[in-house]
Structures are given as C-alpha cells and as structure tokens.
Amino acid sequence: MIIYGRKTVQSTIKSGKFDCPNCRRQESYQLKNYQLYFHIFFIPLLKIKELGDELNCFFCNSTYVPGSVLSSHEYDTRNRLGNTSQEENSTIGLVPCDFGKRIGAFVIDLALLYAFNFILIYYIQSGLGFIPLIGFAYFMLCDFLLKGSSVGKLALSIKTVDYNEGKNVLPFYTILRNLIKGLCVFFPFIYLASLLNQDKRALHDLAAQTMVVDK
Ligand SMILES: [Zn+2]
C-alpha cells in the first residue's frame, strides 16, 4: 500500500449534450477536471498542480479540449466549476479554500508554537505549559489581531470570514469557533468534516457560521 505520494484527483464538473466531431452527431459528454494532489493514505491533502479539464464523448469516448467543442456560455473558465453552492458564495465573492491549505496552515501554526516552546525550555528551563491552552490563546489572539488570520493562514493566503456576509467574524463566534477548534487537538476528525460539504466547512465553521476562504 502506498502511504503517501502524488495522486491525480478527478472530478466531474458537469455533463450535457454536445456535437461530437468524431460521432458527427449530438452526444452526451462529461466534463472532468484533473488535479494533482499530495496524499497521505487515501486523503488528498495538498493540491500540487491544476492539470486542467477534459471533455469526454460518452458514445465514442473521444477526448477534447473543452473550449474547442463547447461555447463560451457552456464552458467558462472563470466560473468553470459552475456548482450552485460556489455560485451562491460568489454573492460574497469568495471561494472556499482547499482542505490541504487549512491543514498546512494549522501545521505551520502548531510548529511555530512548539518551536517557541522549545526555545523557552532551552533558555529559561520552562515551557509554555499545556499546549492546547496556549494554542487556544494563540489562535484567539491571531483572530482578533490579524482579523481571521494566523501566521499559518497568512503564509498560505487564506482567512476565516463570516459565512453569510463574507465579513470579519464577530467576537462571540470567534470565541466559539476557537473553543471547538481546540477540540481538534484531541479529535482531529473535526477537520475532516470539511471534506464532506462543498463549502469545505469544518465542524467549528458550521458552529460559528464561518468559512475559510482564499484571499
Ligand atoms: Zn463521439
């Protein structure tokens, strides 16, 4: 079994009818998108590269560059994903960020905390103490000072916003969000919830009515 490595992730963006140049008649097509991911076990974590889209004729199985057989109305690269939830979110003009980026940001922040802790222990023989508690304080401070960001989030150009309006998260929800996020240390699956919905919201996002987006 391959534990980690690169993996092509395929998703069907849409399907419909088109004039297949090979069949010379109207046939059904499937428009697929391919992305190269770094994966651990079976979980695609970090997007490495966008491999592009491909259109397949359902009947003859020929593949085409989508723009060559679909009109710009049917295939718009700017709004290519065309799924309703993302269209809805475009009312707040924001795109949910990748699962891998979130984990990446979280790992950077944790690494920072641990490094800081290590330096303290080295120089003054005393650490920060209970890391989850320090983590909570750290994320709270970041959320308030950096407005929904953290060092890790800044590094990967993502931030937390209010789900309904795309604005900064209210203090009450920031506290609620971080309390639930703190549980991640003990129950990492909280993050996995973001793999289950289109807006990629984890449990703490759902509770605090937030979403993590690309800047
Ligand atoms: Zn065909």
**Topology, number of strands:** 6
**If you average the pLDDT, what whole number results?**
82
Sheet with the most strands, sense and barrel status: 4 strands, antiparallel
Classification by helices and strands: alpha+beta
The radius of gyration computed from the alpha-carbon positions, rounded to a whole number of angstroms, is 21 Å
Following the backbone from N to C, one meets helices and strands in this order, namely EEEEHHHHHEHHHE
Can you tell me the residue ranges where pLDDT is under 50 for at least 5 consecutive residues?
A: 81-91
Could you walk me through the main structural features you see in this protein, from its secondary elements to its overall organization?
The chain has about 220 residues and is an alpha+beta fold. It folds into two domains: about 5-80, no CATH class; about 100-215, no CATH class. It is built from eight helices and six strands, in the order ββββαααααβαααβ. It has helices at about 65-70, 85-90, 100-125, 130-145, 150-155, 170-180, 190, 205-210; strands at about 5-20, 25-40, 45-55, 65, 160, 210-215. The chain has a four-stranded antiparallel β-sheet with strand order 1-2-3-4. The protein has a two-stranded antiparallel ribbon with strand order 5-6. The longest helix is centred in the middle third of the chain and has 26 residues, at about 100-125. Bound molecules: zinc ion. Zinc ion binds near residues 22, 27, 59 and 62.
